[in-house]
Design goal:
Length: 435
């Protein structure tokens, strides 16, 4: 979703203490479980050893199959870190050069002679993102050949001149997938398995396909007064931008191997952690107080994920979810606070939205960012949906305010209900009712 924050900023004060507060973290997750706020798994590692794992909710509600530490989740854009590592490995092997243009691979792509491999990796290519396509939700569940995916990307107009700025684009990593398949002469699934999963013994990490519950995989859900199963993005669309399935423990082991030189060279790791306009190569900076970590977030269908690694402290956390009605960012803050013995609160939740009065529904528009948001109501539950994006539930705060914790979003309505102010990530956007 456009409004979801793509990188996390964990803001709290760090005071190192070796004592791990697992008891309070258990209470934190007990509160989420009791209030049906989270389906998923989390793992925490210190000094290369998993020190905490917890799973909540269901992999499948119809069969009441519960999530556990071996449940496989789609990890969304954390896939990009794997794809970036594979690309840098190909550079180490002399198969690619970060500064080469991509016109030899994609001669029909607009600006291909100006776009470098590095600009694909750090989102400076100017290539329009396939997931921003207004019709994306009409075709994202259907299988597409590589040629069909390329035709879609070729038909988009560039978002900006290559190298002039950074802007997140899933198209970049679709193209990187195809480049890797061309230089290795194998499928992305085979490359991932041979270059990363097998050498690192990541037994629960692979390129995904149609969800198979018999293979420990999970369906994904959104909460709309109850958990509603989401559609599946076809993996032929997500590719190396978001198509990997894994577990928190495997993600942690991958990250630790990446930063310890077991996948790519020291020079290539320096490239990955070199930032231009807040973009690394398949990585984001993730601060926790005065500590600096690296990682990525992910979201696809009803799945969401966070991975963070703090090399100086040798601490990792990975969260994978197949349905959440609470902020993943807050969960990771609690997890890191527990590791470093910092105070954190056990969340409290309102009982329901049953007392919400009708009248907030309608279509609201912001001409500045060119986006409409439709708000509908069903038995007291309000649902918001931006143009071309997935719907998300709104939780009542007071008479004129609603929130969506997962996206860090608040909607503050005017008293006449003819407009609302959308607040997210420090930004404020006025939406006015058009119908």
């Amino acid at each position: 979703m456009k409004f979801l924050i793509t990188s996390i900023f964990l803001l709290s004060f760090l005071n190192l203490n070796a004592q791990f507060n697992s008891a309070q973290l258990d209470q934190f997750f007990d509160a989420l479980e009791t209030n049906d706020k989270f389906n998923g798994s989390i793992a925490i590692s210190e000094n290369g050893k998993i020190i905490y794992e917890r799973s909540l909710g269901f992999a499948d509600y119809d069969s009441q199959k519960k999530n556990d530490a071996q449940t496989l989740y789609r990890i969304g854009s954390i896939t990009k870190t794997f794809t970036a590592a594979l690309t840098l490995l190909a550079v180490d092997e002399g198969k690619l050069d970060l500064n080469q243009s991509i016109d030899s691979f994609f001669p029909k792509l607009k600006n291909a002679d100006k776009i470098t491999l590095k600009q694909l990796l750090n989102h400076h290519s100017g290539i329009y993102s396939i997931t921003d396509d207004p019709k994306y939700l009409d075709w994202h569940t259907k299988a597409h050949s590589r040629a069909e995916m390329l035709d879609k990307i070729y038909n988009y107009e560039p978002a900006f001149e290559p190298g002039s700025r950074g802007e997140y684009s899933n198209s970049n990593y679709v193209l990187l997938t195809i480049i890797l398949e061309k230089v290795y002469g194998k499928s992305f699934a085979e490359i991932l398995n041979e270059k990363i999963a097998q050498p690192l013994e990541l037994k629960n990490t692979r390129f995904g396909g149609k969800i198979d519950l018999n293979n420990k995989e999970s369906n994904s859900y959104s909460f709309q007064r109850e958990w509603v199963k989401k559609s599946e993005t076809d993996s032929s669309i997500s590719l190396g931008a978001g198509g990997i399935i894994s577990t928190p423990a495997d993600i942690i082991h991958f990250g630790e191997a990446l930063f310890s030189g077991k996948i790519i060279s020291e020079n290539s790791l320096k490239e990955m952690t070199s930032f231009t306009n807040d973009y690394g190569l398949g990585l984001f900076e993730i601060p926790f107080y005065n500590k600096k970590g690296w990682g990525h977030t992910g979201g696809i269908d009803g799945f969401s994920s966070i991975w963070a690694y703090f090399p100086n402290e040798n601490v990792s956390v990975a969260l994978t979810s197949n349905g959440t009605n609470y902020s993943n960012n807050n969960i990771v803050i609690a997890a890191l606070s527990a590791v470093f013995n910092q105070e954190f609160e056990i969340p409290e939740f309102a009982s329901s939205n049953a007392d919400v009065a009708p009248g907030y529904h309608g279509t609201f528009s912001n001409s500045q960012i060119g986006l409409d948001i439709q708000i509908t109501e069903n038995e007291g539950q309000y649902i918001a949906q931006a143009t071309g994006q997935f719907p998300f539930p709104l939780e009542k705060v007071d008479e004129f305010t609603f929130k969506f914790d997962l996206g860090g979003i608040q909607l503050k309505f005017s008293e006449d209900l003819k407009s609302f102010m959308l607040l997210q990530g420090g930004g404020e956007f006025l939406f006015e009712k058009i119908k």
